[in-house]
Amino acid sequence: MHRGIHLLEEVEFHPMNSRRPLEYLRRLTAYKREDDARAAGDAELTSGLSVRSREIDLVGAFYAVGITGHPQFKVVTLWDCHGGWDGGWRQMLQIYEDVRANLFLSDLDDLRFGAFSRPLGSAPGAPPLAGLVAEGYAAPLYLFESARVRPGAALDYLAAVREERAPVLAEYGHRLVGAYEVQFCDTEAVTLWGTDIDSHLRVQRARDAALGMDDGVPADHRLLTWRKRARVFLEGPWRETLLSPYPGSKLAPR
């Protein structure tokens, strides 16, 4: 048994040309489907598509729903490092050895403007990504949360999410599919939830009703209670945004 190690990458595209993220998603998911057929341990640094390996598994490829607070335009990808630190993560690090020339010759470079990567470690009790893939789990929409926590409080926050928040959101059609401590820092936690539009709207309206601003649905004060509870662990910005899974990625409906 080893800890699940993952990589979350946010990729932006400028100027505002919506065809660039589409082409990026097409190319990325196509070549990673090819990588699924590679033999275990067969990793190769190519001159056009970076490292080719089945141990670096593209589990989620999402188009960011800009109206929920993302910059326009953005793609978010979630990678599973099979074998943990000594598996896919080691293969990722090895591409930087000797700073070889083919490290800088990616076919995807002209599509991207910038990218920000977060290495993630699964929190205790978090569902393994490989298990979700084996189950065939998919949702039409995902809720992505990034939370700035007090130094050292990430795992405590994620334990509270799993024990206190997840049961409430489950009643609204949300499933916790990822709970992660961001690695190489001690102030950030990330969660990912599978949901759908109707379930998302039910949560928003129930919260508004609890605030006295919607008399058309029952109020759920537990949603407000959680936000107060979360502040015990938080120190800075907290944000939730929505992601739409790209067809053909492993967490997308088939």
Walk me through this protein's architecture.
Helix content is 28%, strand content 30%. With 254 residues, it is an alpha+beta fold. The strands form two sheets. The protein has an eight-stranded antiparallel barrel with strand order 1-5-4-10-7-9-8-6, surrounded by five helices. A two-stranded antiparallel ribbon has the order 2-3. The model has no long low-confidence stretch (mean pLDDT 91).
List the helices and strands and how they pair.
Blueprint: E1 5-12, H1 19-35, E2 44-45, E3 51-52, E4 56-64, E5 74-81, H2 88-94, E6 114-122, H3 129-135, E7 141-149, H4 154-170, E8 175-182, E9 188-195, H5 197-210, H6 221-230, E10 234-245
Antiparallel strand pairs: 1-5, 1-6, 2-3, 4-5, 4-10, 6-8, 7-9, 7-10, 8-9
Helix pairs in contact: 4-6
